[in-house]
Amino acid sequence: MPRAETDAALVSLDRIRSARDRIRPIARVTPLLDVSAPAGRPLWLKCESLQPAGAFKIRGAYNMVAQLSDDERKRGVVTYSSGNHGQAMALAAQRLGAPAVVVMPTTAPAMKIDGARSFGAEVILEGRTSADRRVRAEHEAATRGLTMVPPFDHEWIIAGQATAGLEILEQLPDVAAVIVPIGGGGLIAGVAAAIKQTTPAVRVIGVEPSGAAAMKASVDAGYPVTLPSTHSIADGLMPVRPGDLTFAHVRAFVDAVVTVEDSEIVDAVLWMFAHAKVVAEPSGAASVAAVLGGTLDKTIAVEGPVVAIVSGGNMGIERIAELSKLASGS
Catalytic one among 46, 57, 196, 216? Predict the structure, then answer.
């Protein structure tokens, strides 16, 4: 992948370390789970599904809301989200005393809508695409005087997500590669920035669903690309366009971006449930799908321990049953 020169727009290690201190009151240092035996290779799961609100998103959301002024927090915050960022921002706002508005798609799972509301947020359902909900969120921000907390394309969000990368290096110093799901790119932007500025030899690979590969299309084109539409079982990995800042980080720090099929994602969800006793929503399982399905080995030679970030676990038991039926063809 072509490399961009690191410049002032990219998140520095100092800012990542500051973010780690800032989010310490709420974000967990999530465990690395060794699943090497059932996987048949050195593989660890970084279980971000165990974060408050069920996903890595609390890292970036809290890091941003905590840095707003008292007046900004008093007036309130707004975001647009497929679900997990909305829940995380709602929780961060609740802890920091800010009213919160979350714009979600009309197709958002009830579990994610209820989660945001349980943290005190007002939830607005708008459209089906990330563009639809962004427009509505921007309207609410303008008419109500709310501060936007974007889901991925902001330096404070990226710095917060990057703290997961620091943890991986501390928990498994001999890690050879880190595999990261990509939606808008906030997680991989941050994790790659943390890892490459600390231990450059560690490979960082991003994973997208084949039906929603906006980052890969952008990397191939050399600039951010807007897809006409996206489709995938992984509802959190379907933005039609990556962020400008997240794309810059991927260009600078990521070794490869690969795609997996929805069927491989379903298999990974069920594999983790059966062999690791981990509940991972499809969006959180794309990284594991790339390892188990062979995409990683076909893309890049990795010798040594692999860490797959399980980015979220907001899924009920009934969804596990649905995916099981889907996998069996019944």
Answer: 57
Class of 58-148 per CATH? alpha beta
- Known catalytic membership, residue 232: no
Marked catalytic residue, from 81, 82, 283, 311:
311
Q: Would you say the pTM of this structure is higher than 0.85? A: yes
Domain boundaries, the chain: 13-55+154-328, 58-148
Q: Quick check: 81 and 61 in contact, CB under 8 A?
A: no
Q: Looking at the domain that runs over 13-55+154-328, which CATH code has it been given? A: 3.40.50.1100
**CA-based nearest residue to 159, from 117, 190, 132:** 190
Kindly report, residue by residue over 219-259, the tens digit of the pLDDT: 999 999 999 999 999 999 999 999 999 999 999 999 999 99
**227 to 131, 218, 266: CA distances (angstroms):** 11, 9, 24
Q: How many CB atoms lie within 10 A of CB 299?
A: 17
* Catalytic residue check, 57: yes
What are 66-86's pLDDT values in tens digits?
999 999 999 999 999 988 999
